[in-house]
């Protein structure tokens, strides 16, 4: 029998009662001699609580490079350490031999980019030794250690990535991500009660859903699973459904279900629209602005670039967090004015809604359908951008739920309107 990696998210380990229930479930697998590696998140709300402590310490200042990110990572990695030890104790009480490890203890090596480190290598010797001694290994998700011995964290939702990286390193049979919903849905089931559970989804589509705002899986976790061909499943501990299986090839998918073009709709309320207006007198203005953002560790996504008469208009989206106080906005505005002879404007009351599906760009009716449905509901479109696999719109954030629901219905994604032939 091969090894299975199971990851339990924040809600699943959100109380002592839930932790005890997981321990009971794990005991059943253990008795059947199923080899398991378990990855845990922090209890729900714990990572936010730790982040708020740091924020209070810095008096809510938002200029990003003011934070001591090395210390921040040490602080926020502790959430997972609490859960791993509690689960291991619960298992011991049930007579299951288990041991918990932090990322550092287990030699999960990452680069040194604090708060969003990438896993580079995992030493599997401890795991293999424990498995051979019939010890159930519990691992703290979301964290690792760099080559200098510093603790690092993997970005929000990073326990998913710990799970798939471990599954890849030990060549597991399957990586199972247990969460608080029954799998991957056509849209966030908490926002739209007509969303439908997807039984199978391709890696490409899952990557797109994740990177465009669906937080059910961290994007990097999907990347790990793809690279090493590990079957990845999202499911819930609160029911017995098989959940959603993420599969590599669309051809496999076509054999099992009658697939429609649109696989899902995501929304991202965390980004602010930032527009830079410059004349083409300044060579490389766009590049210079991006370089400035990089100096402040600000990640950005270019949404649109237009030349109107002699002016360039470049629209980016960047995290709203940077604009929570006006400080960062003022710094960027001053830079654009003094160095690029241009203007900066920002709209932080927006949401990016994305419709995802393979080959979406070649179906012209999709854009038309979106526009006509938004028009009917009186929602004003601020911007549209497309790629081969998604179409994103920017609208006012107050209309998030309305727009998602309207488009979900328009594209026949509502529960009972999807036909599956298995
Ligand atoms: P965990 O703590 O288990 O890691 P997360 O909160 O990170 O859980 O992710 C699960 C949540 O993702 C769900 O509660 C749901 O609200 C949200 N979500 C957003 N989009 C989707 C989607 N398309 N399918 C399923 N869940 C989604
Ligand atoms: N506890 C971390 C977070 O809240 C990691 C995770 O839950 O996956 O982002
Ligand atoms: Mg998560």
Automatic annotation (TrEMBL):
Which ranges carry the Aspartokinase ACT domain? Answer: 353-411
Q: Which gene encodes it?
A: lysC
What PANTHER family would the database entry show? ASPARTATE KINASE, ASPARTOKINASE
- Its EC number is 2.7.2.4
Please state which protein family the record places this protein in. Answer: Belongs to the aspartokinase family.
Q: Where does ATP bind?
A: 7-10, 179-180, 185, 190, 215-216
What this protein catalyses is: L-aspartate + ATP = 4-phospho-L-aspartate + ADP
Would I find Amino-acid biosynthesis among this entry's keywords?
yes
The protein's superkingdom reads Bacteria
Q: Name one GO molecular function term.
A: aspartate kinase activity
Source organism per UniProt: Candidatus Portiera aleyrodidarum (primary endosymbiont of Bemisia tabaci)
Indicate which residues the UniProt annotation says bind substrate.
47, 80
Q: In which pathway does it act?
A: Amino-acid biosynthesis; L-lysine biosynthesis via DAP pathway; (S)-tetrahydrodipicolinate from L-aspartate: step 1/4; Amino-acid biosynthesis; L-methionine biosynthesis via de novo pathway; L-homoserine from L-aspartate: step 1/3; Amino-acid biosynthesis; L-threonine biosynthesis; L-threonine from L-aspartate: step 1/5
- Keywords in alphabetical order, please: Amino-acid biosynthesis, ATP-binding, Kinase, Lysine biosynthesis, Nucleotide-binding, Transferase
Q: What is this protein called?
A: Aspartokinase
Tell me which InterPro entries the record gives. AceGlu_kinase-like_sf (IPR036393), ACT-like_dom_sf (IPR045865), ACT_Aspartokinase (IPR054352), AKii-LysC-BS (IPR041740), Asp/Glu/Uridylate_kinase (IPR001048), Asp_kin_monofn (IPR005260), Asp_kinase (IPR001341), Aspartate_kinase_CS (IPR018042)
Q: Gene3D superfamilies under this entry?
A: Acetylglutamate kinase-like, VC0802-like
Aspartate/glutamate/uridylate kinase domain sequence ranges: 3-236
Biological process terms from the Gene Ontology for this record are: homoserine biosynthetic process; lysine biosynthetic process via diaminopimelate; threonine biosynthetic process
Q: Name one GO cellular component term.
A: cytosol
């Amino acid at each position: 029998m091969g090894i299975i990696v199971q990851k339990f998210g924040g809600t699943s380990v959100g109380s002592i009662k839930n932790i005890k229930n997981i321990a009971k479930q794990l005991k059943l697998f253990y008795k059947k001699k199923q080899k398991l590696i378990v990855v845990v998140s922090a209890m729900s709300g714990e990572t936010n609580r730790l982040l708020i402590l740091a924020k209070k310490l810095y008096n809510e200042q938002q200029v990003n490079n003011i934070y001591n990110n090395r210390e921040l990572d040490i602080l926020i990695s502790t959430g997972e350490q609490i859960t791993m030890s509690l689960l291991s104790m619960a298992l011991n009480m049930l007579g299951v031999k288990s041991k918990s490890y932090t990322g550092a203890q287990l030699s999960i090596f990452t680069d040194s980019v604090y708060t969003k480190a990438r896993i580079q290598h995992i030493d599997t010797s401890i795991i293999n030794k424990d498995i051979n001694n019939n010890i159930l290994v519990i691992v703290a998700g979301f964290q690792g250690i760099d080559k200098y011995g510093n603790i690092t964290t993997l970005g929000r939702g990073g326990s998913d990535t710990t799970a798939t990286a471990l599954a890849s390193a030990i060549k597991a049979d399957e990586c199972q991500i247990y969460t608080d919903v029954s799998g991957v849905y056509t849209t966030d089931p908490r926002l739209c009660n007509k969303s439908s559970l997807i039984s199978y989804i391709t890696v490409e589509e899952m990557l797109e859903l994740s990177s465009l705002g669906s937080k059910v899986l961290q994007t990097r976790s999907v990347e790990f699973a793809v690279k090493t061909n590990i079957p990845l499943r999202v499911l819930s501990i609160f029911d017995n459904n098989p959940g959603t299986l993420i599969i590599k090839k669309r051809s496999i998918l076509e054999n099992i279900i009658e697939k429609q073009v649109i696989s899902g709709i995501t929304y991202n309320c965390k980004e602010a629209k930032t527009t830079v207006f410059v004349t083409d007198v300044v060579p490389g203005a766009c590049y210079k602005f991006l370089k400035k953002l990089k100096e402040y560790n600000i990640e950005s996504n270019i949404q649109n670039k237009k030349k109107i008469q002699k002016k360039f208009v470049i629209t980016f989206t960047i995290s709203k967090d940077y604009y929570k106080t006006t400080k960062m906005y003022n710094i960027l505005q001053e830079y654009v004015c003094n160095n690029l002879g241009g203007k900066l404007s920002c709209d932080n009351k927006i949401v990016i809604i994305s419709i995802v599906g393979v080959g979406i760009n070649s179906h012209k009716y999709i854009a038309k359908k979106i526009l006509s449905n938004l028009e009917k509901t009186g929602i004003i479109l601020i911007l549209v951008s497309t790629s081969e696999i998604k179409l994103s719109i920017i609208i006012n954030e107050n209309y998030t739920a309305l727009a998602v629901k309207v488009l979900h219905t328009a594209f026949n994604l509502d529960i009972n309107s999807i036909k599956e032939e298995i």
